[in-house]
What does this fold into?
Amino acid sequence: MLTASTLPEAPSDPVAGNGLEPSRPALRATSIVAGYGDLPIVHGADVEVGGGQIAAVIGPNGAGKSTLLKALVGAARLMSGQVFLGETDVTGRPLEHLARHGLAYIPQNGDTFDALRVRENLDLGGYLLPRAERARRMEETLSIFPALKPMMKRFAATLSGGERKMLAVARTLMLGASVLLLDEPTAGLSPELTARVLDEQVAALARHGKAVLIVEQKAEAALAISDWAYVLVAGNVAISMPAAELRSRSDIGEVFLGGSLPETKAT
It folds into this structure.
């Protein structure tokens, strides 16, 4: 069984992996212990991401990746630890409060209103805004995802998996989200659609200055677009390092990119 103790040590202080100067984190979570009921799944995890950057949380099945994300927004029990948006402590605040402060959470499923058209989904995302502001925000959102423009009159139910995910993310931008938490955005998608969602949609968010924390089972594809990587093993952050450096490490890369460790390294 692979445990945190079997993995080589790595630097613990994140730096920008895309050539950006290290910046104040847009999202910072420290010493997160989280789970369901009285059972902790995540044990003292620290994660952060800055504006214009993508941080990927990867690891074996059952490591607690989605639980970590859910705990940050109150969808799983946060037993201890702190969550900051910039310098503001938002620990334990409801998702509605977090949304008003620029954080958006896009779950794996149930992220669009299938009976509504694309434009109606976007309008609903900005329903709290005055009409003029909503129109301006929609224009900005469509500048990030121009592929949605010819789909505005289509019902969400008619979109492909990749298009639906794009709509889900775009809807959260209508309230001006600056920090996005994506939980398995490519689940159930083909390799072609996976590449489109990650390479085009998620990468576009970072190019427009958004901070993206993504949980993704397709580790190699996620690392290819990410600046920083967190490897979660048995609820612990076993590795925290630049994504490009992690991809190049043959000693652990095989485990998280679909293979297995040599028998002499596994316990």
Notes: Strands lie at 27-36, 39-49, 54-58, 77-85, 88-89, 103-106, 179-183, 211-215, 228-233, 236-242.
